[in-house]
Amino acid sequence: MKTDAITSNIAETFNGYIIQARTKHLIFMLEDIKNNLMQKLVLKRQQMEKSTSILCPRIKQKLEKEKEKAANCDVIPSTDTLFNVNYYPDQLVVDLEARTCSCRKWHMLIIPCCHAIACIFFQNKEAEVFVDQCFRREEYLTAYAGSAPPIDGERYWPTIEYHLDPPPIKIGPGKPRRNRVKDPFENPKKPGHLTRTGMEMTCSVYKVKGHNKRRCPNRDIAVIVEPAPKRPRGRPRHDGQPPNSRALSVIAPSSTVAQATTPTPQYIGHTQPLLQLHLLE
C-alpha cells in the first residue's frame, strides 16, 4: 500500500493543474501540458539535489514526528531483534528483522512507527536505515531523471506534401435501397404520421373508456350538463361589483358609453369632463 491517504486527490490535483489547458484545442492543449510537465520535472529535480538528507523531505518530517512519540515507549528486549514495547496502556510486539509491529503501521506505510523507532534506538541504530528504499533520495532523483524534449512551434514545422484522400466507399452487393425504412405503425396514407392503432378512446359525455362521443350507445338520451361558469379573474372589489367591471366599461359599445355619460340637467356644462373621467376609469 505504502501510503496513509487512500483518496483520489492526486487525480484531482492533476485535473486542477491542467484546467486552463483543457479549454483549448487538442494540439494546443497537449502543448501546454507538455510545457508544464517539462518545467515541473526540472524544478522537482533541482529541489531534491539541494537536500542533504538520505530521505525525501516529507518522509523525513513523518519520521521526526514518530521519533517524538518514541520517547514515551518502554522497550523490553526478548532477543536481539524481537522486543516487547509498552506504550501507555498498550503492549505491542516489534520484530526488527521482519520489520513488523503489532500496530501494523510499519507494514502498511513501510516507515517505522514510534514503537519500532524506540527499539531501533535501544539497539543504538539510525531509524533512517529502516525506511524502505523507495523513499530514499537516490530513488527520487531517478524518478525525475527524465525530461520532456522541447519542440518547435507551428511556424517552424516542416512542410510535407501528402495528398490525404477520404477512405474508399464500399458498395455492398444487390440493388441499393431507394425508399426509407418505414415504421411498422406508420400511416400509409400520411407518410411521417403514426396511426392511432392501440390508442384507447374516452367518451367525452360519460367519461368512459372504450368508445368516443360519436359511437356512444346512449348519446340520444344523454343530458349534456353545461359547465359551471368560471370565476372572474382579478381581485374582488369592495363595492360588490365583479372584478372585471372596469374592463367591461372600457370595451362597452359606443351607445352604452354615450348613454352612461348623458349629463343631467344640473351638470349641463360638464359633459366633456365626465366622459373623460369615465374612460380613464
Describe what is shown at a glance:
Residues 167-196, 228-247 are annotated as: Disordered. The chain is α+β, with helices and mostly antiparallel strands. The protein has 9 helices and 4 strands.
Descriptive overview:
The chain contains 9 helices and 4 strands. With 281 residues, the chain is an alpha+beta fold. It has a domain of 79 residues. It has a 4-stranded antiparallel beta sheet with strand order 1-2-3-4. Helix 3 crosses helix 5. The longest helix has 25 residues. The radius of gyration is 46 Å and the shape is elongated.
Topology:
Layout: H1 9-17, H2 26-50, H3 57-70, E1 73-77, E2 82-87, E3 90-95, E4 100-101, H4 105-109, H5 114-122, H6 137-143, H7 245-250, H8 254-260, H9 271-280
Give the key terms.
zinc, elongated, Znf_PMZ, SWIM-type domain-containing protein, four-stranded antiparallel beta sheet, Znf_SWIM, 4 strands, alpha+beta, about 280 residues, disordered C terminus, zinc-finger
- Characterize the overall form: elongated
CA gyration radius, whole angstroms: 46 Å
Going across the biggest sheet, name each strand in turn.
Answer: 1-2-3-4
How many strand units? Answer: 4
Q: What structural class should be given to the helix and strand makeup?
A: alpha+beta
Average pLDDT number: 82
- Report the oligomer: single chain
Question: Helix count?
Answer: 9
In this structure, how is the largest beta sheet organized? 4 strands, antiparallel
As a percent range, the share of strand residues is 5-15%
In angstroms, what separates the terminal alpha carbons?
Answer: 84 Å
Helix content: 25-40%
